[in-house]
Specification:
With 187 residues, the protein is mainly α. The chain contains eight helices and no strands. The chain has helices at 4-8, 10-30, 39-53, 60-77, 89-112, 124-131, 135-151, 155-170. Helix 3 (39-53) runs parallel beside helix 5, helix 4 runs antiparallel to helix 5 (89-112) and helix 7 runs antiparallel to helix 8.
Length: 187
């Protein structure tokens, strides 16, 4: 069995290098802003760097990008800086979340990017994938929903909006929410 680097040659190696180096570059560029940035903001920027840097058809690029983000966070931003051994449990949790969410967002970003143009020989599954909303549309939906929650919209309206968003993003026919029955005094 041939490896990814053997099949794609230099391009696969460059994608892996980009997946490893872009999060490192972003983390280093953020270092001068250490006093002004909260660790959660740095974690969010690193997850976005993982999503941007992963491309190609291999599972290796998102894995490398997410791992590089988590290691950069733990090495450069967790307490004490310059060590992977962290003093605080919150830094360990944040590092783990950077790895998990970075891997998920990088894999989703990789899946939503069209690797080849629509033309002859494209399967129905690829055509369906190209009709799906892009990653930026999904992020806009999450932002819109969080804004509705922050503004204090009613729960029933937010529930309907979440159902509509899930139908659009996942190409569902319908989506419903069944609340668990609660006793009147336990809510």
């Amino acid at each position: 069995m041939r490896t990814v680097a053997q099949r794609e040659g230099l391009a696969a190696g460059l994608r892996l290098a980009r997946a490893a180096l872009l999060p490192v570059a972003v983390a280093v560029l953020l270092l001068p802003l250490r006093p002004a940035l909260a660790p959660a903001d740095v974690a969010l920027v690193l997850v976005a760097a993982a999503a941007v840097s992963a491309s190609g058809r291999s599972w290796w690029t998102p894995t490398v990008a997410a791992t590089a983000c988590a290691l950069c966070y733990l090495w450069l931003w967790a307490t004490p800086p310059g060590s992977l051994a962290t003093d605080r449990a919150t830094d360990r949790v944040t590092g783990t979340l950077v790895l998990a969410v970075g891997l998920l967002s990088a894999r989703l970003g990789q899946r939503w990017r069209s690797a080849r143009p629509l033309g002859e020989g494209v399967t129905w599954r690829a055509r369906l994938a190209l009709r799906r909303p892009r990653g930026i549309d999904c992020l806009r939906s999450v932002g819109r929903l969080s804004e509705e929650v922050a503004c204090g919209d009613s729960a029933s309206f937010i529930q309907l909006d979440v159902a509509r968003t899930l139908v659009e993003l996942l190409n569902l026919r319908d989506c419903r929410y069944d609340a668990a029955p609660f006793l009147p005094g336990t809510r």
